[in-house]
């Protein structure tokens, strides 16, 4: 093991399952001290215990809770090296049936939550003169899907916001990047018979990824291997956004 994150202090939101949990596992294996944050107390505590990480229950849509997560981590460990703003919610449904509550819930987590985390971590990292922020977007920001207007809109917004933050924080020694995962077999996949086969066939590489394959992208952006990378969106989607595959006819 390379231990690329040895002794780094890392916060990961949305960490109780899926990509967040896979990232926590990988960061821990690479030597980091990980603080896992999630709105689910029971699932988060169980995951943290299994991985050997800390857990702080956090609603990322609440800026006060995000600030407390960051300040509490700094108070305990003295610094913050990496902030992975990963928490997100899936949303699908016809535009004309989308309620204000539906819209506000998705925006609060998928966009506002990432902004709050970037701001809170950015303040600490700018003061200490170093740090890396990795925000989770989606290839849905590039390839919008019918019936997912709000979800895709928030993911595209995360990329643009993160690039602007990267420009502002670069002179202060802070890197800000995003990862845009493609189809992933995580908790967001609907429990529908045959859905995995359908998702596999939609991927140019022939299969939908597992969260650990996406976590390696986050590790790269967070690590010193990417010390000259900022304002970048790393698309990890098995070629889905590269173009259309042949129909075979």
Description:
Helix 1 crosses helix 7, helix 3 (63-77) packs parallel to helix 4 and helix 4 runs parallel beside helix 5 (149-169). The chain has a single domain, classed as Rossmann fold (3-Layer(aba) Sandwich). Helix 5 (149-169) links the parallel strand 5 (131-136) and strand 6 (174-181). The chain contains 7 helices and 7 strands; from the N terminus they run E-H-E-H-E-H-E-H-E-H-E-H-H-E. Strands 3-2-1-4-5-6-7 form a 7-stranded parallel β-sheet, sandwiched between helices. The mean pLDDT is 92. It is globular and about 50 Å long. By secondary structure, the protein is an alpha/beta fold. The longest helix has 29 residues, at 100-128. It comes from Rhodococcus rhodochrous J3. Belongs to the short-chain dehydrogenases/reductases (SDR) family. Keywords: Lipid metabolism, NAD, Oxidoreductase, Steroid metabolism. This is NADP-dependent 3-hydroxy acid dehydrogenase YdfG. Residues 8-182 form the Ketoreductase domain.
Mean pLDDT score? 92
In order across it, which strands form the biggest sheet?
3-2-1-4-5-6-7
Structure summary, number of beta strands: 7
Query: Radius of gyration, Cα only, in angstroms?
Result: 17 Å
- Topology as a string of helices (H) and strands (E): EHEHEHEHEHEHHE
CATH top level assignment: Alpha Beta
Specify the CATH homologous superfamily: NAD(P)-binding Rossmann-like Domain
CATH topology: Rossmann fold
Q: Given the helix and strand composition, which structural class is it?
A: alpha/beta
Number of helices: 7
Number of domains: 1
At CATH level 2, the architecture is 3-Layer(aba) Sandwich
**Helical residue percent?**
40-55%
Query: In this structure, how is the largest beta sheet organized?
Result: 7 strands, parallel
Low-confidence stretches: none
Protein name: NADP-dependent 3-hydroxy acid dehydrogenase YdfG
InterPro entries: KR_dom, NAD(P)-bd_dom_sf, SDR_fam
Keywords: Lipid metabolism, NAD, Oxidoreductase, Steroid metabolism
Domain Ketoreductase: 8-182
């Amino acid at each position: 093991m390379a231990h690329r994150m040895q002794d780094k202090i890392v916060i990961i939101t949305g960490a109780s399952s899926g990509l967040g949990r896979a990232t926590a596992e990988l960061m821990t294996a690479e030597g980091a001290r990980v603080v896992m944050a999630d709105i689910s107390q029971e699932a988060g505590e169980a995951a943290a215990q299994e991985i050997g990480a800390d857990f702080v229950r956090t609603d990322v849509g609440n800026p006060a809770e995000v600030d407390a997560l960051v300040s509490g981590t700094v108070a305990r460990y003295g610094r913050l090296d990496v902030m992975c703003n990963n928490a997100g919610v899936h949303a699908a449904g016809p535009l004309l049936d989308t309620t204000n509550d539906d819209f506000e819930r998705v925006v609060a987590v998928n966009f506002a939550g990432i902004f709050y985390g970037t701001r809170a971590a950015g303040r600490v990292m700018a003061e200490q003169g170093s740090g890396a922020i990795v925000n989770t977007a989606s290839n849905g920001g590039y390839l919008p899907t019918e019936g997912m207007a709000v979800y895709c809109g928030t993911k595209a917004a995360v990329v643009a916001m993160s690039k602007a933050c990267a420009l502002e924080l670069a002179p202060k020694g802070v890197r800000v990047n995003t990862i845009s995962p493609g189809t992933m077999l995580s908790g967001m996949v609907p429990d529908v018979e045959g859905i995995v086969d359908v998702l596999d066939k939609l991927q140019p590489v022939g299969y939908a990824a597992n969260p650990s394959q996406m976590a390696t992208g986050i590790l790269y952006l967070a690590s010193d291997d990417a010390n000259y990378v900022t304002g970048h969106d790393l698309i990890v989607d098995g070629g889905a956004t590269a173009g259309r595959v042949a129909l075979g006819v």
